[in-house]
Amino acid sequence: MDTANVIPINVGHIQDVQELNKTKPTTIPERFVRDVTERPSTLDTTTTTDDIPIIDLSKLMNGNDPDDFHTEILNLTTACQEWGFFQVVNHGIDLSLLKSIEKVVKDFFMLPIEEKQKYPMKPGVVQGYGQAFVFSEDQKLDWCNMFALGVEPHFIRNPKLWPSKPADFNETLESYSREVRKLCQNLLKYIAVSVGLKGDVFEEMFGVAVQAVRMNYYPPCSRPDLVMGLSPHSDGSAITVLQQDKGSPVGLQIFKDNTWVPVQPITNALVLTNGRYRSVEHRAVVHRESDRLSIVTFYAPSYDIELEPIHDLVDENNPPKFRKYNNGEYSINYLSNKLQGKKNLDFARI
To answer: Which residues does UniProt assign to the signal peptide (predicted)?
Structure first.
């Protein structure tokens, strides 16, 4: 480890990166400094790749042109099979609502620390304000503040964590979450069609789907080459929808062909169907001068559901790669381990 840019701190003392950033530190606290092998590369994160798939949802939903529908289904198949990630355009969510949710979330993060700490993310829990997936005193911390809330079904909510400020936060989040839920349902319908299944197969399989939102704020960092905005991982949900402040620097990177590819996404889809459609490993990096905001919605099957590879997608030539398991047990396993690449898939792997 490069100790020249490290200062020792008391464990658990300086963990709020916004407050830390206000001090204009010239050195980075040790608990945030990654080992050389874990640091982001010097890749120019202002560039993106034109190869990242873009799906026009209107061509799937309107159904007016069979050729357009077929072409877009093929695009979706390629996106899920080769990338595990895609951007969605013409998704149907009102742009004014997207701006509104960005504003109230940014306003929340700009509140005094004393106000945000009224909604603490307690150890081992992923709702509230703080840092998630931290399980040991020597674990490295991400250069990120998080605010996470359970949305649906209502029993997963903790009403004490829904903030009173900004005044329109809760109403805006409710409206936004309803629209994103519709988007997830539509995406799953066409993902099912893309693998030759009936469009309603996932809706029936999922039961009352679980939906949660995590808001991430990445302050500037004087040494972005030493820290990680969000550790590499793949999500535990069926679909993850990512929105970020359009004025933000590119921070999201996905791992493809042994390379970290920088992207500026609208949404991304992460679906597991016996390894045919793979969840993408991704991470976030930070910027020296600019902050970044992202709003992430996770959409997953009911905790009561037993999951296994879909029977229509396995045969003697393509045997199951994952065992049958309870999604609630998987969720507990996922949430009780630190973010670590795709390691959490080992829970269900045969």
So the answer is: none
Hey, CA dihedral for 90, 95, 101, 103, is it positive or negative?
positive
φ/ψ of 295, rounded to 5, equals -125, 120
Separation of alpha carbons 286 and 5, rounded Å:
17
pTM reported for the whole predicted model:
0.81
**CA 161/CA 149 separation, integer angstroms:** 7
CB atoms inside a 10 Å sphere around CB 83 = 20
**Does the pLDDT at position 291 exceed 60?**
yes
Beta strands in 141-229 (DSSP E): 145-152, 210-218
Short-list 295, 281, 205, CA closest to 241: 295
The domain made up of 48-347 has a fold known as: Jelly Rolls (2.60.120)
Domain ranges for the chain, please list them: 48-347
- The answer to whether the beta carbons of residues 147 and 215 sit under 8 Å apart is yes
The tens digit of pLDDT for each residue in 153-200 reads: 999 999 999 999 999 999 999 999 999 999 999 999 999 999 888 889
Burial class (CB in 10 A: 0-12, 13-18, 19+), 327: buried
- Cα separation values, 6 from 10, 32, 235, 279, Å: 13, 9, 31, 35
CA 4 to chain centre: 33
Is residue 79 within a helix (H) or strand (E), and if so which, with residue range? none
Cα distance between the two ends of the chain: 37
